[in-house]
Each structure stands twice: as structure tokens, then as C-alpha cells.
Amino acid sequence: MKVFYLAIVLSVLLTGCSRKWKQPTHCNFNLSFDTETSSGVNEINSSTFYVSTLSFEGVREEAGNIDISKSIDKQMNGNAVELIEFDIPQGTYTDLNTEVVLSRNSGAAHTARINGKHSFSGGSFNNFIIEIDSDILLLADNFDADGASTILLSKKVDRTANIELDVTALLDGIPEASWIDAVTGPGTIVIDSDSNQSLYLYVLMNISNYVDVRFL
Prior knowledge:
Elements: H1 2-20, E1 24-34, E2 42-60, E3 66-77, E4 81-89, E5 91-102, E6 112-119, E7 125-132, E8 136-143, E9 151-153, E10 159-166, H2 167-172, H3 176-182, E11 189-191, H4 197-206, E12 211-215
Parallel strand pairs: 1-10, 7-11, 8-12
Antiparallel strand pairs: 1-4, 2-3, 2-5, 2-6, 5-8, 5-9, 6-7, 10-12
């Protein structure tokens, strides 16, 4: 009989523990595409991005891993900041990753479009336009305010985090030789799936390196 009661007590405790770690922490994510910062090499005049989904994958010490997603379907222009509310199960996350999918909707011609000016080391410059029509996957590790990779999400303690893509830094990372090769005259440098494909692929392959996700 004692064994029976012990089994019931243990079952209740385990159920309560399981329910506890299913409780969410309300998080506010400020999503932005930074195009204002300028190094004097690339200056962005306008930009448009189509955000499709926001997802999180995480490893918790107290409970099972998480894999949750939310549909956004939002056009973002310039340096606008989009506030996205997300409930994430509480726990101590030793690894938390963010995935942002950019994908054009039925009425959009491009997934992302960036207009700007590139200045060469010799003093000359060319305007450029980047048009990406394929889906873009932004992947980034999450960090706490102190730079630690372990993030604590507690019940009834709201958290805020910034998700930022530094677009200017991404373009600054393109080798100067690639910009020079793209110049065919005084006109605008066009970078898309048909023109200057090496620059196009560089942007797609390196874009996640310039995404920062940080809790405040």
C-alpha cells in the first residue's frame, strides 16, 4: 500500500514539474534592419525586406528542447522596428537560436531590395541596387545582456530582446575587387540572380554573420 501511495505522490510531483516548465515567458522582440550606420564605403538610401516567419530552437537544463515558430508576413522598410511578441517556455537555456525567414509574398517582386551608393578607395562612386528574389534564412545564436550564451527565462518575468541585421556591415564585408569587377561604366551596379552573381551569392551566403540577437 505504501508503495502505491508513493507512486501516486511521485506521479503528482512529476506532473507538476512538467506543467511548470511548459509555462511561458512573455518576450518582446524588436526586429530591425540597420541601414543607417555608415563607414563611408557603402551608403544605403532605401531598403525593403519581407519577413515571413520567426522561429526559436532551444536546449533547456530543466526540460525538453523547444522548437517553436510564428508567422509574421510583414513588409519592413528602411530602419523601421517591428515589435514581435512571443511566448517561450520558461527555463535555463544553455543554447537558444533564432531563425528569421525572409520570403516574398504573392504581391511582392523581391524578397529584399536595397538601393545605395558604393564609394571606391580612389574617390569615385557608383550607385547600386540589390534585388533578391529567393528566400533568405537568417540564423543567429542568442546572447544575454552580459554576453553570456546561457539565458534564463522565468515565469511572470517579461523579457525584451533585439534582433538586428546590420545591412551596411554586410555590404562593407564584400571585397573591393568584387565591386570593381561589377563596374561596367558610370551607371548603376545591378546585383541580382542574373547580374553580378558572385556579389549576389556573397550576400546570401554571409548574411547570417551580421545578425545579432541580444536580450536586454
